[in-house]
Write a structure and sequence with these properties.
The structure holds 2 protein chains of 2 kinds. Chain A is mostly helical. Chain A has helices at 17-39, 71-107, 109-123, 127-138, 142-169, 172-180, 184-220, 232-238, 248-269; strands at 12-14, 273-275. Chain A has one domain (14-274): MetI-like (MetI-like fold). By secondary structure, chain B is an alpha/beta fold. Chain B has 2 domains: 5-257, Rossmann fold (3-Layer(aba) Sandwich), CATH 3.40.50; 275-512, Rossmann fold, CATH 3.40.50. A 6-stranded mixed β-sheet of chain B has the order 6-7-8-3-9-10, with helices on both faces. A 6-stranded mixed β-sheet of chain B has the order 16-17-18-13-19-20, with helices on both faces.
Chain lengths: 280, 550
Amino acid sequence: MTTSTTIPRRLSYRFSWVGIIGLAIILFWAVIAFLAPHIIPYPVGEIVDEDYFGPMSSKLLLGSDYLGRDMLSRIIMGARYTVGISLAAVCLACFTGGALGMAAAVIGGWFDTVLSRFLDALNSIPSKLSGLVIAAAVGSSLSVLIVMLGVIYIPGAYRFARSLAVNINTMDYITVARTRGEGISYVVFSEILPNIIGPLLADFGIRFVFIVLLLSGLSFLGLGVQPPYADWGALVHENIGGLPFGAPAVIVPSLAIASLTISVNLLIDNLPKKIRDRSA
Amino acid sequence: MQNLVEIRDLKVEATTDAGRRIEIIKGVDLEIAPGEIVALIGESGSGKTTIALTVMGYARPGCRISAGTVTVAGKNMVALSEGQRAKMRGLEVSYVPQSAAAAFNPAKRIIDQVIEVTRIHKLMSPAEAKEKAIALFKALSLPDSDGIGNRYPHQVSGGQLQRLAAAMALISDPKLVIFDEPTTALDVTTQIEVLRAFKAVMKKSGIAGVYVSHDLAVVAQIADRIVVLRGGEVQEVGTTAELLAGAKHPYTRELLSAFEPKARGESVAAPESRPLLQVNGLIAGYGPLQADGLPLVKAVQEASLVLERGRNLGIIGESGCGKSTLARSIAGILPASAGNLTLDGHELARSARQRSREQLRELQIVFQHADTSLNPAKSIEEILGRPLKFYHGMKGKARDARVDELLDMVRLPKALRSRTPAELSGGQKQRVNFARALAAEPKLIVCDEITSALDTVVAAAVIDLLKEMQRELSLSYIFISHDLSVVEAICDEIVVMYNGRKVEEITPAISKVPQHPYSKLLFSSVPKLDPGWLDRLERDPELVKTYVQG
């Protein structure tokens, strides 16, 4: 009885190439965002081109914007804001919403009812509208943006986590844990969470995309990141005048938004699957 | 005479997650004569349903018929195109599923679903089909045969629905009907009605049948020939009488021996007369509380029990009699509305939330479905380790050693500790489930139908384990079951429940004969291995009318 041998589990993962492409693009943008100040060829606010809406050239790889600033540098710095703010906001939304949702499912009763109705009320305000109101009322700093985007997406994350947790909560092993005398936090984090972590991660990814799009939308309206800095949405907005000229300044930030949101979706639809071969 | 069905060297492959192929049916030969009922019997995973489905040319998703021929009425189902098979299905071969409740569409009237086959195959006009359906309802001795078809599936009982599913299969006058465990989900008293109806209709119209079951006693009543399967291979074939009288294969004998009345073995520890658990006038139920402080639907009405230390109490009754509710009230999961509970001389709070940790530790409950009572996301080690840490504060090496001990106690290899529940068999899961209760070192374990989901042979092994644990650890059990033979094997006292009330208390050691009419009906409804049992069984029609809703 003293020797306890652990048999190595037969574990392997299957990861489809579509998911790998998605992951590669996300990692690419993450690295860009992280290294941004070190790799930009020109300072973000500096006018380097005599022409505005300049074409792609060997000097300015992605052309210049409406003031003649280097587009490549602006997109690289924009990645910081778009990826950074969205990530912070989605973490806030999913952690808070997820924890509240699971707790509501486990506790039930008036706690569940009050919280659900309150968050439903919050949910009933259109996200763009509440974003506009808050940004107009308290101004638009980075921290305000993060908290605002997070709060807007808490009700969705809450609903999702709650509906998953309600199903798990009826399982006998939850009853067993409760008759053992376990507390709420143990039931939520040790019994329920491991069973719904997959769908919750998928939800995390989708919500990240929503937030990128909402942030881009707000910036496009001039309520997001303020000049001279700009996230991708703001870049599209300020260069919208280049559309008739077919300027890369308006197309490239749009492509950047598309590439990030699509690759996140590709990844979460093709998360690595754990293969456990029972009969082996 | 030419055989209706001839299966030759049938092999079925399944593909695992990792893409590996496993042979699940390893070369089976089988023939069925017209009008003959052949039973496929074996434990879960033996391939009995897989074989039965191949008769319709069907393999479940992930499976594939890889070799062999299945000839039905001269046509090889394996070689036919999907369209040709569709023509055969429902017309020549039809299927009665295990759970009729899940097989009926809840949004459509029963009659429309029963005659759907005639519409698909354009056999007859809807009016003719309805007439025929009503005739079948009569033949299957369904009550109100004219009107029952106009009801929705939730408006009839489980036993009736199972017979209606049979009517659906029989309406096209098939040559062969596949019954996939059609009575497994039914109560014993209902099962008899359904079996009788099936048997009468099949004999009358000379339809051949494949009867899939794990219950040898049920099969003995209805089958002409029995095929015993294990691990995708035929172990033994014989006529019912031959097989029951002189089984040759060791596995068949094991199956048979599970039916022999087991010696209970006198309780080793001299029973002390100090009561361990006392239940007085317990009332529990569901729904909003009424003016008198009692729930709207009372599932348990004034139940009183006394369990002495070191002895076992069995509670039997059919589905809906309140036995599981009683167990839940004792465990505090569903707080009782009235009555009091005393464990080992101390008053227990009605709700588990108000009980002390020590009280919770002393009374453990084990649920019927090991599948849902073990967290699929955790390893066996974590599942067993948690109560050790929670109740006894064990950590690290001491806990590891104790987990090994527990696995050893329930006869599981230590190698299983890193696996997840999904990687265990049904019997192994139930052992882990039980080991978790043992980890708390309780005085009393409430076992809620813990053997019902298991195969006969496995269930017998689990019962043996329970007895052994009792001898070693001086435990007491409350054993809840609908299966009389299981309860008789382990319990010192048996309480019969009907409609929320305790109707009788029997002490098997003193008298095995029940007095109350319902107990008599229940005891007499348990199928015996004797093939003539069903035909000879006579039941008082008045009694059946009073107590059987099937």
